[in-house]
């Protein structure tokens, strides 16, 4: 869901200093926090809305139980 440096900061597993640096960066850049939050909210509301979820579920049912 998160796009690196567009809607969040991705870090590699077990890379503590990457996490520390990402948190420091976000704490020092409030406008980036808002930008990432808005971008993530937009993506989630578009991709995971009720209409898309119902369509995906119906597609699965049609594949396993054709009419």
Q: Could you explain how this protein is built, in words?
A:
The protein is mostly helical and 67 residues long. It has helices at residues 16-28, 30-47, 50-64. The chain is elongated. The model has no long low-confidence stretch (mean pLDDT 95).
Write the layout of secondary structure elements.
Blueprint: H1 16-28, H2 30-47, H3 50-64
Name its key features.
single chain; 67 residues; mainly alpha; 3 helices; 69% helix; elongated
Strand element count: 0
Tell me the overall shape: elongated
Number of H- or I-type helical stretches? 3
Whole-number radius of gyration?
18 Å
How would you name the oligomeric state of the polypeptide chains in this document?
single chain
Percent range for β-strand residues: under 5%
Class per helix and strand makeup? mainly alpha
How far apart lie the N and C ends?
A: 33 Å
Task: Work out the helicity level.
Answer: 55-70%
Specify the biggest β-sheet.
Answer: none
- Kindly report the average pLDDT value: 95
Identify low-pLDDT runs: none
SSE order: HHH
């Amino acid at each position: 869901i998160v796009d690196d440096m567009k809607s969040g900061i991705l870090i590699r597993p077990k890379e503590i200093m990457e996490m520390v640096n990402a948190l420091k960066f976000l704490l020092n850049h409030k406008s980036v926090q808002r930008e990432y939050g808005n971008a993530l909210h937009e993506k989630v509301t578009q991709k995971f809305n009720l209409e898309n979820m119902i369509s995906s579920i119906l597609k699965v049912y049609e594949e396993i139980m054709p009419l």
